[in-house]
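Lab channel / #folding
Pinned by the channel admin:
"Please post every new chain as: sequence first, then the structure tokens as a reply. Keep commentary short and put observations after the output so the thread stays searchable."

First post following the new format, from NK:
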Amino acid sequence: MMRMGTRQAAELALLLVAVIWGSSYAVAKQALLFYPVLGFIAARFGLTCLLLAPALRGGGLAALRPGLPLGLLLLAIFLCETYGVLLTSASNAAFLISLCVLFTPIVEWALFGRRPRALLLVACALAVAGVWLLTGGAAIRFGLGDGLMLGAALLRAGFVCFTQRLTAGRDVPALALTAVQSGVVAVGCLALAFALPGGLPALPRSGAFWLAVVYLVLFATLLAFFVQNFALRASSPTRVSMLMGTEPLFGALFASLWLDEQLGAGGWAGGLLLVLASLWAVRLTAAPAEGAPSRAPLAGQPLAEP
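Reply from TO:
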């Protein structure tokens, strides 16, 4: 009974994280009204690095080798995601990023030769149909922001695969690795900002901006990180991934209620199709083809949502 209670608590906490991550697209879009993308990312990940700095005392050196290249990849992910959120609707961003679940086994196949199940191609076809409906159907309106979100989803898939490769067989403390990655993202954004003409303006004094940054750091990053690790010990990877797969629906809901974004029937149908295709991919990844070794599905969630 105690074990069942722990699992239920973990899964309820995961559902809460899915709600938080769903809200993060609307929060980020609001914060970007006050400050440029590079400054916003630098503020968020700089604060994350500072909060996790104590974890570097015991495991900083071990985390440095994988953390530097993974941090650069994470920088590319968050540049695509945050500019994508700026240039498309928050609801489109939330749905399109869910494609990382489908991309992950395909990227793993391309990089490491681990062939996915044939049925995954059917899931991919459903996802393509979902994207078509989501971005306008017959009158398709596929903009730069949508393309950046697709690029971010592909980069997330690569991030998961390379994280697995670079940390396999090494004792790398998770918090120390997150601290290094966050530091690389923050420094990278500042370097890019000051290399471009004009640099960055002074930090905004708006309470709404800093409230958004603190919310994303404390809840969408640190709390989410803790809950994921706790849930993976108390539940199965498949159930964890399935629960996290509800995040795009919450993202669209927050965009509709908070930002007054209207998807329309076709958009909602496309978004739901994307989520269903992603959830099916999770199950296919968890259940190996005949003769193939079993392995847990890759969640594809680097640190947090935008």
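NK: Residues 78 and 306 are 7 Å apart (CA to CA).
TO: also worth noting, The chain has one domain: 2-286.
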